[in-house]
Records
---
Amino acid sequence: EGTGATAASGSAAGKMTMVVGVDESEHSYYALQWTLLHFFSPGQQQQYRLVVVTAKPTAASAVGLAGPVIRCRGRAAVR
């Protein structure tokens, strides 16, 4: 009477979960590559489950409520 969801969760029972956060930076891409190479290589017994969390900056984080910030001689000036 098991369902597919039960079978899927049962296959990962006893494994620790590893989480890698990925955004648009080269550093996060490298971190994911490193994790895959060191913990999820083909032929290696899988001891972990991998969860990849993606993040994308919002438009609000790039442009403030007062508009874009322009740097003038080291000081921020709102345009």
---
Amino acid sequence: MASYTVADYLLDRVQIEETVTRLLWYADRKEWDKISSVFAENIVIDYTNLFGGEPVSTTGTDQAKAWKDMVNYLDATQHVASGLLMDLPQPSADHDSVQRPTEVKFTCNVFASHVKTTARGGPLLDIGGRYNIKAIRLTEALAGNPWRIQSLKAYGVPLSVTSDCLLLNRSFDSHFL
């Protein structure tokens, strides 16, 4: 069994945080060719708490396309994650007693701002809430960040509800928000 050291723990933690940051960064900057790089091959996206329906099983590439269709319609977005709480195992003095994790579940606070200048009720829709995320470690990753998002469940609270900026896009499929 490989030992799991404090350095391993800290590196995992930073890399998982970076994975979430890259996801939101790429979406807000419309870097669609990069978004699928933070996802596992097959993923589950669950926005049922916000919009009803059912969770969606898809690929990272298809999810990136769905978000592209949504976000390109808007004038701007900004997503910010904070307060990541992870179930990473804590290294012990006996390094051999803790295995290096292959998956990690965590939660984080999220604030999302959506702008559509022509929306009735005002151009801004703000949603606060949290994501519950499961990330997996790619075993074939020899260099770089091995962590990929395998599932994401959103829990949200609309903070500004006067805008219909998301509803103006008639092709919008809320399962892929």
---
Amino acid sequence: MPEQNSPIVSGDLFARHQTITGLRALADFLEANPEVPVCEYGWTLRVAQGVSQNAETDAHQRAEVDRVAALLDVEPCTTPGGHYQAFRRFGRIVYQISHIPARRMEEHEALMSYADHFHANGRNEPGRAA
């Protein structure tokens, strides 16, 4: 039964149904077609909470990771890169839910603002500062 503070809307149920149906169809297909390769290291189903904008969305998204972690019966953790996440392994398949704090996104965007000025070959594009 869904929690009172986290109602499931009909679109969520449809998307959930389509995801589960697709996973079952994929499993059936792979089982029936052993010549089709699979990644020997497994696969991760990632559920992102979207981009956090401020402290309020940070708190909401962190709470959602905590809620799902409890359902998965795991402890959430913060990665070295600052992402807050919970994951559970099902054999070689991993279910992962993640939250990227607003501050971490700001840091990433600041770093990426310099991306057009640096190139792997060491040369800048014409018209760009050296």
---
Amino acid sequence: MIRARRYPIAAVRGCLYTGRRFPKPTRDVTVCLNDRAVRWVKAVNLVRELQDCTLIEVSDVPAGPMEGA
């Protein structure tokens, strides 16, 4: 398991459209938000960048309130 203290949105995933007058879908892409091509992506998912991460063993995670009920 990974615990991230920060997880900003870094990119979008979706279909890239090309063409000027009548844009057509071309391929699935993942594009960073600072890329000029992002305006031509019909996004279906946001991509987050995990920062300041800690690896945790699943067995070290305390049981939730629903477990064992």
